[in-house]
Description:
about 350 residues; 7 helices; Rossmann fold; Elongation Factor Tu (Ef-tu), domain 3; alpha+beta; six-stranded antiparallel barrel
Amino acid sequence: MQKVFVGLSGGVDSAVSAALLKDAGYEVVGAFIKIWQPEFTECTWREDRLDAMRVCAALEIPFKEIDLSEEYKREVVEEMVRDYERGITPNPDVLCNRSIKFGHFARWAHESGADKIATGHYARISDDRFTKSLTLRKGVDPAKDQSYFLYRLTKEDLERTLFPVGALTKSEVRVDARRRDLPVAQKHDSQGLCFVGDVSIPEFLSRYIALKPGDVLDGRGNVIGNHSGAALYTLGQRHGFLVQKGDTHVPHYVVAIDVSNNTITVSSRKTDAATQEAEIENVSWVDDPPENGAAISAVVRYREEPVGAVFADKVVRFDEPRIATPGQSIALYRGDEIVGGGTVRPQRR
């Protein structure tokens, strides 16, 4: 019998994952991952830990806990802050998956006797019957698919990982949890990153980055307003700054960010923030990379519709312009299979 450590978040998805694996005959261990929380925010980790323990009691499986707060602070939070300081927008969920869940947690689980780990991600691992190779695919629920955040996994990760709810819809997971009378069956999904809590990203960053007000510019370089600090903004953003000159009655969108001069440039046309191509760095492949010039599809932001694209020499050329924010992830797909991705490289000055 294979032993599986299930990362229990205290939510319904991971709870049902543990239940399904027990039904399937695995020896299941519930494991709660404690992450870092600053003293000035409120976080639900204590309640989440208690819910994870209640799930283990209901399923009659062992409960374990691993404290990865220092690793999370160093490898996710501090990395995120450094990126914002550079004027690029990071994706902390991608960092967390690679470093924490499929890094430190996976290694600890295997050192503790686990054959595999499992999480409540909405994604699927398939065994290609022709190549006998594992592939990573979208979850069947398009509204919950989380494959975008998993493009940095490797074949080795797939061999030791299970995604039990990836073949289910969220409503089916809820029904299953209620049928089993799991203690988290009615619990709401968590929103955002735990360490931020109820604090806004600007307020959080202000604790770590020296921010000062700066000028809002139009496309000709004229000062038309002011903002709270260039590092806080991302391309396509339409709130959080003040336009005082020109056409003040229409929405304006951030189309350029210059942290060195502490300015942002805005336009009334959101399309001015879009680009036909983006160079990616920190490239990672789940499967064999596409050949140069191969047709693929790309997802530039979570829950954004895939767009047809061509990949060549680390450059993704979109069939239709997209807002590709420096630092954000672009996930590359062949159909519903995710083959890899990377982060948008800041434009060279």
